[in-house]
Amino acid sequence: MKAVEPVVTSVIPADVAAPHFTGHSPRGRFRFRPEMILIPGVAVLLIGGWEAACRLLKISDFILPAPSGIAVALYQGFMSGQFVTGLFATMSAVVLGFLASAAVAFVLGTLISQIRLVEVTLFPYVVAIQTLPKIAIAPLILIWFGVGLESKVVIAATVSFFPMLVNTIVGLKSTPQDKIDLMRSLSASRWKIFWYVQLPEALPFIFAGLNIGIVLSVLGAIVAEFVGAKAGLGYLILQMNYNMDIAGMFAALVVLGIMGIVLNSAMTFARRRIVFWQSDQYTMS
Amino acid sequence: MSPLPATAETPDPASRRGQPKGADTIVCRELAKIYETRDGHNVLALASINLSIKDGEFLTVVGPSGCGKSTLLKVLGGLTEITRGEALLNGSPIVGPRRDIGVVFQSPTLLPWRTVLDNVMLPIHVLGLDRTEGEERARGLIEMVGLAGFEMKYPNELSGGMQQRVAISRALVHQPALLLMDEPFGALDALTREAMNTELQRIWMETRRTIFLITHSITEAVFLGDRVAVMTPRPGKLAEHIDVDLPRPRSLDIMTSPRFGELVTRIRGLLQTQGGLE
C-alpha cells in the first residue's frame, strides 16, 4: 500500500521561504498502477488453476473441493441462514472481547507506564502470564463461564490482551527526552505532559497493538467455539467436519476470512484518521 | 573528591569591562553540578561557573562535546538541579522550570500532529495564557521567521531549516525573558546553517531578547555572539569570555574579515591550550 507521503522540500534559503511546494498528492485522481491488474490476476490464476486441477485430476470432493463447489456451498450456507447467524455469533464475541480487552489494556498500560511502583509490582506477573499460552486455559474458562457468548468473549479478550498491553506501555515510554524537556521547560504538569505529548506519541504503537489484538480476538473466539459452543463460525466448521462437508468448511473459512479483512480494514481506517501524521510504512497493517 | 579548580574568571563577573549596559538577566555564582552515575560514581559536570548575562545580550558558549554546555543550559532552564552555588534569573533563584524561559533544542522537537500554528501556540496552551492574544503573536512570529502561509501545514511537510524556525517562534511566543538555544543548527547542512545564523541575528535584533546559545562551531559563536564564553571539559568550566567587537548587523562576508579571523584563532588557541580539543 502506498502511503500518501508528503514530499519534503529541499533546503530553502532563510529569506525566501518557498510559497509553493509539493504537498499531498491530490486524492481521488485516478492513477493506474500495475498492482491493480496483478493482484486480481493472481487470484484468477490461482482459482482457475485450482478448478482445472480438480476437474482434470478428478480429485475427490472429500479431499479438495473445487472452487465452484465451494461457491455453491457458500451460497447455500447464506440462503439457509446458518452463515448469517454463525457470523453474527462469532463477530459479537470478537468485537466485545476485543473492546473489553483493549480498554483494560489501555488503562493498565497507562498506569504501568506512569507510576513506577505499579510497574515494578506488576511487571513480573505480566512477564510470567505472557509466556503462558492463553489458549491452554480455554477449557477452564468454558467450565467457569459455560457454553455461550460469555466464555467466547472472555477467551477472545484473554488471548488478545497482552500484545495490546505491551504496545501501550512501550508507546507511552517512547517519547523522546527532548519533548519531555520541552514540556517541562514550560512548567507542564505530569498530566499535561501525558495529554500533550506522551499519549499522541504512543498512538502509533497503540494502533499497532490494536491491529494484532483484533486478529488474536478472532483466533480466541474460534478456539472458544472449537472447545465448546452452540453457534458461531468455528462451531459450524467443526460440525461440517464431522459431516465430511468439506466444501462447506471451505465456505465457512471464506466467510471467516472476509470477516477478518473487514475488521482489519476498520482498524486501518481508524488508524489513518487518528494517527494521520504517521505514514503507513512505520506500522504493520 | 579533589578540590574544585579555580577558573580563569574574575570572581565578580559584573565588574568586567566591555559589556552592554543594563541589568543582569542571568547571574551564576560558583555554580557546580555533580551527577551520580548508575554505578554510584560522582561526575563533576560543571565546576565553579561564574557567569552573568546582561539584559538583551547575545551570549554564545563554545566548547567541545561533553564539556558540560548542555548541562549548563539545563541548569539555566530549571531542568536539572544545582549541586552548589546559585543561578539567578532577574534576581530570583532558578529552582525549577519557569514560565519566562524559552528553549530551542538541537532537533526541532515539533509535535507532528499539530499544525505549524498550533506548534507555535503550544506554550500558550500549556501555560494557559490568553489564546486570542497568543495567536496574534504566534502569527506575527511565523511571519517574522519567513513562514507566512505555512500556518496550517504539518511539520513533516517542512524542511529541517523551516522546522527549526518554527521551533524558534515557539520559544518566543510566550515572550520569555531568556531564550536558551542548545546547538539549534547543529543538525542542519552548512548552507542552511549560515542562512539560519543570519536569520537568527535578525530575529534577535528585532526582538532584543537575551539569548544564551550553545554551539560547537567557533565561527557560529563569533558570528552570532556579543560575547563568546569558551568552555573546557572535565570538569566543565568557563575558561574565558571574549567580547566580539564586530559591528551589527553582521553579514556572512564578515567571516572573511581579519578581525573575525583573529577572534576565531584566539578561541581555537584557548580550546587547544585548555585541553578542550584532543
Task: Write the H/E string of chain B, N to C.
Answer: EEEHEEEHHHHEHEHEEH
Strand tally of chain A is: 0
Q: Per CATH, what is the topology of the largest domain in chain B?
A: Rossmann fold
- Structural domain count of chain A: 1
- Overall structural class of chain A, as computed from helix and strand content, comes to mainly alpha
Helix percentage range of chain B: 25-40%
Backbone structural class of chain B: alpha/beta
CATH architecture descriptor of chain A: Orthogonal Bundle
Radius of gyration of chain B (Å): 19 Å
Number of helices of chain A: 10
Helical coverage of chain A, percent range: over 70%
Largest β sheet strand count, sense and barrel closure of chain A: none
What do we call the CATH homologous superfamily of the largest domain in chain B? P-loop containing nucleotide triphosphate hydrolases
* CATH-defined architecture of the largest domain in chain B: 3-Layer(aba) Sandwich
What portion of residues of chain A belong to β-strands?
Answer: under 5%
Low-confidence stretches of chain B: 1-21
Strand order across the largest sheet of chain B: 6-7-8-3-9-10
CATH superfamily of chain A: MetI-like
Mean model confidence by pLDDT of chain B: 82
What is the molecular shape of chain B? Answer: globular
Overview features:
heterodimer; A: 285 residues; mainly alpha; MetI-like fold; globular; disordered C terminus; B: 278 residues; alpha/beta; Rossmann fold; 2 domains; four-stranded antiparallel β-sheet; 10 strands; 31% helix; disordered N terminus
Structural notes for this entry:
The complex is a heterodimer of chains A (285) and B (278). By secondary structure, chain A is mainly alpha-helical. Chain A has one domain (65-282): MetI-like fold. In chain A, 71% of the residues lie in helices and 0% in strands. Chain A has 10 helices and no strands. The relative contact order of chain A is 0.12. Chain B starts with 23 loop residues before the first strand and ends in a 5-residue tail after the last helix. Chain B folds into 2 domains: 21-100 and 176-278, P-loop containing nucleotide triphosphate hydrolases (Rossmann fold); 106-175, no CATH class. In chain B, 31% of the residues lie in helices and 24% in strands. In chain B, the strands form 2 sheets. In chain B, strands 6-7-8-3-9-10 form a 6-stranded mixed beta sheet, sandwiched between helices. The relative contact order of chain B is 0.18. The longest helix of chain B has 18 residues, at 190-207. Chain B has 278 residues and is α/β, with parallel strands linked by helices. Chains A and B meet through α7 and α8 of A and β6, α3, α5 and α6 of B.
